[in-house]
What we know:
Number of strands: 11
Strand order of the largest sheet: 3-4-11-9-6
Strand content: 25-35%
Order of helices and strands: HEEHEEEEEEEEE
Structural class: mainly beta
Largest sheet: 5 strands, antiparallel
Amino acid sequence: MNIRELKQILQAMEATGATELSLETAEYKLSVRRGAPELVVTPAAPAPQPQPAAVSAPQPSEAPVAQEETSQPAPEVTQEATDEACAGCVEVKAPIVGTFYRRPAPDAEPYVKEGDRVEKGQVLCIIEAMKLFNEIESEVSGIVRRILVEDGEPVEYGQPLFLIEPV
């Protein structure tokens, strides 16, 4: 493990709010602890269960986080939407690798649906990473035009999750 990989792991821990990490390979064993996170992470009770199709899909390990070039502490928002039907929309992207959930619990209503009006700072979804549930908030006020990920699907860093039309 080189210093760049270690920095990326620490950045990922900061972005997810993780306070503890243990990683063991044939070459090394790494255990990292840090102070209390600045982000408030609230676990959903009971923990959301992925759809049966998602259970059989291979789950991403925490190791790919170390391979990312950079890490952002908040959702990345760009003005360039890839969907032609929503050319002026803002993309809300995944700030971390994990499992995407649209609702706080399996029997609860989704945080947002297509066509809903959202305010800046409103929770859009949860991404579970390393057994922590991270609330992803809207960076703009507007209308949710597209939800690009299905409930229970694994998501990658920087993957577009929502298209929001600013109002």
